[in-house]
Amino acid sequence: QKVELAKLVSEPTVTRDGKQLELASNIGTPKDVPAAIANGAEGIGLYRTEFLYMDSADFPTEDEQYEAYKSVLEQMEGKPVVVRTMDIGGDKELPYLELPDEMNPFLGYRAIRISLDQQDMFKTQLRALLRSSVAGKLRIMFPMIATLNEFRAAKAILEEAKQELLDEGVAVADDIQVGIMIEIPAAAVLAKQFAKEVDFFSIGTNDLIQYTMAADRMNERVSYLYQPYNPSILTLIKNVIDAAHAEGKWVGMCGEMAGDQMAVPLLVGLGLDEFSMSATSILKTRSLISKLDSNEMKVLADKAVNECGTVEEVVALVEEAMAKL
Ligand code: PEP
Ligand code: MG
């Protein structure tokens, strides 16, 4: 089976009825890129830049960041690279950044909330990203966006950084897509409005499930609630994808659910365009997708969203469909 999968490394990702999708890899550092390529990644769907900050004794400089981003873009040779601005806070701490003691760190000072508050740090990252943009196909993504105002504020700082660089005579690509993570239910609910202003969405189910179900993603005691197949989660995902497509925008998913073999048939049916996962899941997902008919999966997903009330009902539906493959 391994040999069979290996044959798919340089193949496109296509459903049985010929619909082309994109399978990308999640990475944490430039060192992860060779494994992504070796496993057939068609792009990087999530570069978690916080590791650059966490592996450093002090704030990484603009040049240090530039080198890291450029390295990823160059290694990907023109394939799309979605870089997420830093997502510190929650459970991720920095020794050199004083964070407040909070009752609920996952509901507190985190990710874009820190970036919009500490704009010098944010701008340094954005300048590094913009400088790297000429080395490949860069896409910039903001994490933990809850409101349109946050997106607009982040985008304005990005534009400011771009203008500064252009004034300094530094080249910046002019086709950089700017998108957001959908990982807070408020953004998923308001997807229709966001879709008019962003270039793309990437659904972060790790957090989206935790916040929708009010169930800590690390807490075993409430793990029965933390279920990707919950019809409420599927309904949110459908809302996001439909809203984006109505505006001609694409939607990816970079949470664990994107590489979950039971979830993939549903996500194909819901119309997800890009799936980003750990490198080791890519080939088996490509193989699975090649066996799926996108229209049949649409019927399946519609049924899951419209007729199922429980996780068990959704799972039974998917299992039945998988048994027929
Ligand atoms: C997510 O929340 O699904 C996600 C991809 O981000 P992280 O796991 O880094 O919070
Ligand atoms: Mg997240």
UniProtKB/TrEMBL annotation:
Reactions that this protein is recorded to catalyse: L-histidyl-[protein] + phosphoenolpyruvate = N(pros)-phospho-L-histidyl-[protein] + pyruvate
Domain PEP-utilising enzyme C-terminal stretches: 4-293
Lipid biosynthesis as UniProt keyword: no
Domain of life per record: Bacteria
Keyword Kinase attached: yes
Swiss-Prot/TrEMBL cofactor(s): Mg(2+)
Keywords: Coiled coil, Cytoplasm, Kinase, Magnesium, Metal-binding, Phosphotransferase system, Sugar transport, Transferase, Transport
E.C. number(s) listed in UniProt: 2.7.3.9
Class of enzymatic activity (EC top level): transferase
Localisation: Cytoplasm
Gene Ontology MF terms in the entry: phosphoenolpyruvate-protein phosphotransferase activity
Stated family: Belongs to the PEP-utilizing enzyme family.
Role played: General (non sugar-specific) component of the phosphoenolpyruvate-dependent sugar phosphotransferase system (sugar PTS). This major carbohydrate active-transport system catalyzes the phosphorylation of incoming sugar substrates concomitantly with their translocation across the cell membrane. Enzyme I transfers the phosphoryl group from phosphoenolpyruvate (PEP) to the phosphoryl carrier protein (HPr).
Full protein name: Phosphoenolpyruvate-protein phosphotransferase
Originating organism: Fundicoccus culcitae
Positions spanned in the full protein: 252 to 576 of 577
